[in-house]
Oxygen-dependent coproporphyrinogen-III oxidase, mitochondrial
Amino acid sequence: MATIVFCSVNKTTQTTARRCLLAPLKKLVRAGESHSSPTLLPGTRWLRFMSHGTAGRTAAGRTRRGALALTGAAAVTAAAVVAGVLANADHFQRAEMATKVSPAAVEREQEGDILERCREFMSPPVSDVAVLQERKGEMCTRMEMLIMQTQAEFCKALQEVDGGTFKVDRWQRKEGGGGISCVMQDGKVFEKAGVNVSVVFGHLTEEAAKQMRSRGKVLKGKDGKLPFCAMGVSSVIHPKNPHIPTVHFNYRYFEIEEEDGSKQWWFGGGTDLTPIYINEEDAFHFHNTLKEACDKHHSQYYPDFKKWCDRYFYIKHRGETRGIGGIFFDDLDSPSQEEAFSFVKSCARTVVPCYLPIVYQHLNDSFTDEEKDWQQVRRGRYVEFNLVYDRGVKFGLATPGSRIESILMSLPLTARWEYMHEPAKGTREAGMLKVLRNPKEWV
C-alpha cells in the first residue's frame, strides 16, 4: 500500500525537496524561495508521488489515495508543498500551495506582452488583442488578462486529471462584448465541468440598476443611462464520484461611468466547496489554502470573507448552507484599486491548488448506489440556491443579450428531489446536514 510524500521548496528544506522531487523536478527548484510565499513554476505537470507504507482507510473501508498536485496549466501554476512523509495516509496533510505568481509572469505583466500571454489561453481574448495592447495599463485590460489566464490554468489542470477535452465556445453579445465558455461533459471524472469568461459592456437596465442600488450603490446616470463594463471568470465543477466535492469560484470586476464622467469600480468573488460527505482533512486543506492567500493582504480578510461566504451561500427555505463555504466578498473598492486587484489575483491563483489535490485524493474511492443517490439529493439543493438566490444568476438573467446557456452552466447534468427527505440519525448523511445547518471553523 502507499502513503503520500509532500515536499516543500524553501530556504530550510530545499535539500529535502530536491531529494523528494527527484531528477524530473530538480530543474524546477530555485534558490532563495520564501517559506510564506513560494514561487509558482511554469510548465510543470501533475505528478503522483507514493512511498511504501501503511495506507489509511475511510470508515467505509475504502483505500485513500493521495497525490502531489503540480499543474500542467500554462505560465503561473505550480506548487511548493510541505516536506516529509505522512505518518498516516488517512490524514490528508495539506500541501503548501503557492499563490504568488512567478517572477517571469510578473515581468511579462509589467512589460505588457499581451500577445505572448494570449498564446497560453483556451481561446483568444474576448477583446481584440490590438485594443488590449493599446490600453494595457488600464484595469479592464489587466482584469481580462487575469480571468483568461485563470480559465486556461484551471481547464488544463482538469483535462489532465480527467483525460477529456473542454469544448471551447465563443459567443458575442450584440449589445456589446461576449464571452468564452469552456465545458466538458460526461468525462471520466467530471460529469460536468464549466469554466466561463465574460466581458460585457453597454448600459445598465433599470432592473440591474435596482439591484445595484439595493446594495447601497448611489448611481447617477445621464438621461437614465448608466454605461458599464463587467467582466469575470466563473466555474462550477460537478464530479461523478460523490466523494469528490463540487467546487465553485467566481472573480469579477465592475465599472460604471456616471453622468459627470467619474467612474465607480469594485471587485467581487470567492471560492467555495460543496462536499457530499464531510472530510475534515479536505476542509482544512481547502480553507487553509484560501486563508494563506488572504493573509498576504490583510489578517481580517479570511475571517470576514469566510463569514460572508457562510451567510451568502445559505438556502433560507431549507435552513442550511449550500456547502462548507470558503471565502466570498463583493463591492471591494478599497484600500486602492491596485491593492484590491492584487488581492483578487492571489485568490484567483488558489483555484487549482485548493481543489485539485482533493480531486486526486479521492480519485479512486469506491462508492455505493446509496451514496450516489445522496449526491443527487444534494445537487438538488445546489440547483435551488443558484436559481432562487444567486446574485450572479439574477444579474445575468436581467441583462439584455446575456447568454442563458453560460449563465445556467452551473447546473448539474443530473439531480433529484425526494419529497420530505431526511437522512436517518447517526448516518454520515445526517452528519453532513448537521454541518450545513451549523457552519463551523475549519482552520
About this structure: Residues 1-103 have pLDDT under 50 and may be disordered.
